[in-house]
Design brief:
Layout lengths: L9 E9 L4 H10 L3 E10 L3 E9 L3 H12 L4 E8 H6 L15 H7 L4 H10 L4 H4 L5 E6 L11 H20 L2 E6 L5 H11 L5 E4 L6 H12 L4 E3 H21 L7 E5 L3 H12 L4 E6 L2 E2 L9 H9 L9 H5 L4 E4 L8 H4 L7 E4 L18 E4 L14 H10 L7 H13 L19 H16 L10
Parallel strand pairs: 5-6, 5-7, 7-8, 9-10, 9-12, 12-13, 13-14
Antiparallel strand pairs: 1-3, 1-4, 2-3, 10-11
Helix pairs in contact: 7-15, 8-9, 10-11, 10-16, 15-17, 16-17
């Protein structure tokens, strides 16, 4: 088991203990390792041994490792497994499928299955649009990943990606009552992924692409948007962009700056960095500089990465060159989607007055808030343990709720801008401060406000197929 992030938590150690073994030796070994036994549960007893679960409070990862080693050396003791609350929560997965109506007799069975269901099948065959009203399609989203860029873990494959996709499905249901299903594909071939998603699309009202590495994610999303008539949304790109833009709107409001006048530096031009920049440009930004491992992207150079060529052609109007430090001189906003620790305090000091810093690298931000809070107007990160967390959960539930409710054929730029403005609007003038520019993910106003504005934007831009009751 990976025992990362166990600080100040508990682990459960299952031991098989031979009859006659002095149990006090177990307690002594745990205490010597730095643990504290807080509960003991007998799981199974037999003639030769007893199986017990010991709940042990641990200080850190090192405590857990020492504890396991110490117990394994005791005679008459076998460590069956060691787990914590997070692992226990994942046993058997985190989601289930439940019927909406019970099957209690033969008549119920005949209506939900054969023979009565045949009439419903025929109705859909004659008018495929009825699938939205007569099947789960009207409220379902496929959360699709190939496991190639999972969180900060990288290319860990489809099986290892499942816990993340299950978690995403839980968030859809919890926040917006959308039924979502994890679909983890055992291929990282672009054409195969496109074909697989198109093949399963009839059963879903929307597709949420997740944790697919760049640059393949660009083509996969673009092709699927062109070839399907249901919304396709790559959350790592657009979810980040929407929430980032919402936070920036409020940060600019707080500092009295205008997006049209602000000089914005985006560091890390991958999927999220590109999507954030597209949204900034759509929102009226005129001075955007992109910085990646080759320095400031400029139209004076040709890049192997096709998206970088698009980026260079649409940003950096002054065709500046150099590295991150050069880009930041005189900048108003730093947006980091790159790597921890690369933004230095001395760089921030060269920015304009009241600089705005979004340091969103995870798990370690480009600069830690405590190292910059005295020299910036606003700082935001991607972490929940600092103020102003840029969290995609603020975005995708409401966007899909709105898109499903109006049966949108796509999620376009107007709908994303509307979602960002909705999120920003939930922070009132009396609430806005340097430590509160973005609402909590548990703010119940967010999903409904995003939903309403997304529906309106879909109608205004002509991509809504129905007008739901508000």
């Amino acid at each position: 088991m990976d025992n990362k992030a166990l600080d100040g938590k508990t682990v459960i150690v299952r031991l098989e203990i031979d009859s006659g073994t002095n149990f006090s030796s177990v307690v002594s070994a745990i205490e010597a390792a730095g643990g504290d036994v807080i509960a003991i549960d007998v799981i199974k007893t037999g003639k030769g041994s007893t199986t017990r679960d010991l709940t042990v409070k641990v200080k850190d990862t090192g405590t857990t490792e020492r504890l396991g080693k110490s117990l394994s050396l005791l005679p008459g003791i076998r460590v069956v497994n060691t787990s914590d609350r997070t692992f226990l929560l994942h046993l058997g997965g985190k989601i289930t499928v439940q019927p909406k109506t019970p099957i209690q007799n033969r008549d119920d069975l005949s209506r939900v299955y054969t023979p009565e269901v045949a009439r419903v099948c025929t109705a859909i065959h004659e008018d495929p649009s009825k699938a939205f009203s007569l099947t789960i399609k009207r409220n379902t989203v496929a959360v699709v990943s190939d496991g190639s860029a999972v969180l900060g873990l990288g290319n860990i494959g489809p099986e290892a990606a499942m816990p993340v996709m299950e978690g995403k499905a839980m968030l859809f249901k919890q926040f917006a009552d959308v039924d979502a299903f994890p679909i983890c594909l055992d291929t990282q071939d672009t054409e195969s992924i496109i074909a697989a998603v198109k093949a399963i699309a009839p059963g879903f009202g929307g597709i949420n692409l997740e944790d697919i590495s760049s640059p393949r994610c660009f083509e996969i999303e673009e092709r699927l948007r062109e070839e399907l008539n249901i919304p396709v949304f790559h959350d790592d790109q657009h979810g980040t962009a929407v929430v980032l833009y919402a936070g920036l709107l409020n940060a600019l409001r707080l500092t009295g700056k205008r997006i049209e006048d602000a000089r914005i530096v985006v560091c890390g031009i991958g999927a999220a960095g590109t999507a954030c920049t597209k949204m900034l440009l759509a929102g009226g930004a005129r001075q955007v500089l992109g910085v990646d491992r080759d320095g400031i992207l400029t139209a004076d150079r040709e890049y192997a990465h096709p998206m970088w060529n698009w980026y260079a052609a649409n940003t950096n109007p002054e065709r500046l060159t150099g590295g991150l430090a050069d880009a930041l001189r005189g900048a108003d906003v730093f947006i980091g989607l790159s790597a921890g620790g690369i933004l230095k305090r001395e760089m921030v000091l060269t920015m304009n007055e009241q600089p705005i810093v979004f340091a969103m690298a995870n798990p370690d931000p480009e600069i830690r808030p405590e190292d910059a809070e005295d020299i910036v107007a606003v700082i935001a990160t991607g972490r929940s343990d600092f103020p102003n967390q840029i969290n995609n959960v603020l975005c995708f539930p409401g966007i899909f709720r709105g898109a499903l409710d109006c049966r949108a054929v796509t999620i376009n730029e107007q709908m994303k801008l509307a979602a960002a403005e909705a999120i920003a609007s939930t922070v009132g003038e009396d609430e806005l401060s340097r430590s509160y520019i973005i609402p909590s993910v548990f703010n119940t106003k967010v999903v409904e406000e995003v939903r309403k504005r997304v529906i309106q934007a879909a109608r205004d831009s002509g991509v809504a197929r129905r007008s739901p009751k508000e």
